[in-house]
Amino acid sequence: MRILGLDIGSKRIGVAVSDEKEIISIPVEVFNNDGKANKNLKRLINKYSIKKIAVGLPYTLKGEIGSQAKNIMAMAESLLNDLEIEVDYVDERYTTKIPLKISNRRPADTEIDKFSASIILSDYLKRRNRKIEDIK
Q: Would you place residue 91 in the very low, low, confident or very high pLDDT band (cuts 50, 70, 90)?
C-alpha cells in the first residue's frame, strides 16, 4: 500500500509518496493550494493507488494544536472531504528548517515544500513501522 504525505500551506501543497512497502518517502511535486488542488490530489491518489494520507500539522512548541494547526486541519478537511481515504495527522514542527540546513544553497520554496512533505511522510512511516514492530 502506498501512503501520500502532504505539507499543506496557504499558497502551496508539497507532496511525497511512499514506496509499496511503506519504508521510503519520495518527494513528488508541489502544486498551488487553489481551486485545482482537489483535482491534483485525486490525480495523485489514482496514479499511485493511495490508501492513506499523512498530513503535517504545525503543533505549538508545547506539542499542542494551536490556531495554525487548526487552519491546516480545516484546509485538509476541505480538500479531502469527498475522498474516502483515511487521513492521519503528523507533527511537522521544524520540517521546513531541515531542507534549509542540509542544502548548501537556498532552495526554492517549491523544493522546500516538496522535501518537507517527504520528511513528514518519512516521520509518519518510521512511527508506524515502530508500532507494528512493537506488536510483533
A: confident
Cβ burial, residue 22 (10 Å; 0-12/13-18/19+): middle
- This prediction's pTM: 0.85
Count of structural domains within the chain: 1
DSSP for 57-124, written as a single string: E---TTS---HHHHHHHHHHHHHHTT---EEEEEE-TTTTHHHHHH-SS---HHHHHHHHHHHHHHHH
Full residue range of the structural domain in which residue 12 is found? 2-135
Q: Domain containing 86 — which CATH number?
A: 3.30.420.140
Cell numbers at residue 14, please?
Answer: 508539497
Residue 11: C-alpha distances to residues 29, 34, 79 (Å): 14, 8, 13
